[in-house]
Amino acid sequence: MKQKLNPFIIAFILFTIICHAGDLRAQSNKVIIGYVGGFRGLINTAPIQAKKLTHINYAFVDIKDNRAWLHREATDTVNFRNLILLKKQNPALKILISIGGWTWSGKFSDAVLTDTSRQRFVASAVAIVKRFDLDGIDIDWEYPARPGDKGNIYRPEDKHNYTLLFKELRSQLDSLQQQTNKKYLVTTAVGGFKSFVDNTEMGEAQQYLNYINLMTYDYSGGKIASHHTLLYSSKAYKSDNNADAAVSLFEAAGVPANKLVMGIGFYGKSSILVNGAKGLGDSVATYSHGVGFAMIKDSILKSPGFIAHRDRHAKADYIYNAGTRQFITYDDEWSVKKKCKYVKRKKLAGAMFWEYNDDLKGYLLDVIDRVLVD
User: E strands, 158-239, where?
Assistant: First the structure.
């Protein structure tokens, strides 16, 4: 004979489970930062799981005439409004503007070259934060004192001006706090490789920063089929670039572990290899467009000829189709779990990802949330 549970007891149990989950989230001190792309136009915020994020970095704000500039103000304005509405789901969620990015970094060097230009540039960025009631500013300068995208302006003075930029941001946002009684964040996205550290003063700059987001992806792009995002070095080819090496570089430069945020790629990078190639470590013939993880998982991996491979030494995955010679390097649930466990073991600040649109079903965010919040 089966005994029926009192519905009030069932309701109490469910309420307890929900509250416990909320307590775990509140107790977790790890950040989960998602870059959300407004550069395409209007953002559909409906799929965004706000409760699984601590910060959203709005990508991107452009630079024009040495000022922070809303390149698409009509859609930017709507996007800001809709992103702020997500705070109804998660009142602790922070919304920041991210200035620059790969395509729009070319004018940083001029904008921060002198005390006057730097002050005016920062004032224009702070004005955007104030106007839309946002929570801070993220700087994605690719890259200070070295080339980034073709045609970008860069100069040796960038190395120190990069530090002065954060000092000025911190000063002006602290002044705004006196008006609003609201704390504001200053963060940055940084290249996860040695030449970035060599051309900046991260030990000095970090004192003005809340978080430093390590772009530990996009490592591939040479003549060898390699991982674009990996936790450790691979035995299949020689390279100094990986997430663990990046963490060590920034810590050695004077950045505390609790300000470092592990970068995760929500997309794969695709290439066609040369005739006779078997996969990782072989030669690349041409590169093609990247592809989001949701498409990799739901479509490509189910297509004939594609075989998934796991590099257990690098803690990274790739797929290869011997017939078409297509090679795709990417993060999946397994590699993301490894990275998040590393974040906890190394006592880093948390994880960030580029970008939300590449995994709208939340396959990878679910893993980040589950591992970092537990």
Answer: 185-191, 211-215
pLDDT tens string 118-155: 999 999 999 999 999 999 999 999 999 999 999 999 99
Counting every residue written for the chain, the total comes to 374
Residue 148 is part of a domain; what is its CATH number? Answer: 3.20.20.80
Q: Of the listed 142, 168, 201, 355, which one is catalytic?
A: 142
Mind giving me the DSSP string for 76-96? HHHHHHHHHHGGGT-TT-EEE
Active site residue 142: yes
d(CA 30, CA 53): 10
Query: What span, in angstroms and rounded, lies between the C-alpha atoms of 261 and 244?
Result: 12
User: What is the total count of domains within the chain?
Assistant: 1
DSSP state string for 168-180: HHHHHHHHHHHHH
Could you tell me the pTM of the whole model?
A: 0.93
Residue 237 maps to a domain: yes
Query: Tell me: the pLDDT tens digits for 220-259?
Result: 999 999 999 999 999 999 999 999 999 999 999 999 999 9
Task: Report if residue 236 sits inside a domain.
Answer: yes
Q: Is residue 243 part of a domain?
A: yes
What three-state secondary structure class fits 161?
Answer: helix
Which residue range(s) make up the domain with 228? Answer: 15-265+332-373
Identify whether 298 is part of a domain: no
Measured distance CA(43)–CA(58) in Å, rounded: 10
How many CA atoms within 13 Å lie on the side-chain side of 147? 3
3-state secondary structure of 19: helix
